[in-house]
Amino acid sequence: MNIFDAFPVLAVVAVLTATNVIADCDVKSGTGLALTGHAYSSFPVRDFEQCYERCKADEPKCHSLNYHGDHMRCDLNNSTRTLHPEFVVEKPLSVYFESRYRVSVGSQRFVAGRTCEDILSREHSAVDGFYWLNSNGNEDPYVTFCNMTNGGGGGHLPS
User: Fold this and answer.
1) pLDDT band for position 28 (50/70/90)?
2) Residue in 92, 89, 39 with CA at minimum distance from that of residue 65
3) Best CA proximity match to 62, nearest among 42, 48, 85
4) Which 8-state DSSP code applies to residue 42?
5) Given the DSSP bridges, would you call strands 30-35 and 88-98 parallel, antiparallel or unpaired?
6) Which run of H or of E encompasses 156?
């Protein structure tokens, strides 16, 4: 058996290994799926674990990953299927994995939201409190109170 004959077997083993990892996690992930249109980096990897470690190391930018077992490639995504279910496609030998270590939008200066409504739409479990905002992406982020119980009201620059 040459290396090319073994490739399909290795791809299936890699996907099955990833499936076992996903089964142990409380995340919105799945086999046979991929998020399209949101990859900010794509590169070859030896296995799912290497792809996962790259995503984890690139927090908070990496929100999810696609591992393509048939091509041994990894896509790091800057969004999730929770936010963009319309971009999820079926890919038989791929694994979609949503990062459980992702930093919540608005919780830190370097992941400031644009508005309180923006934070609430991206972080469905957001509660009333103080959040980091950067309304146009070019200014210095600031902290303000967001009333999430009324749909994300507030968020004005403090005087």
Assistant:
1) low
2) 39
3) 42
4) E
5) antiparallel
6) none
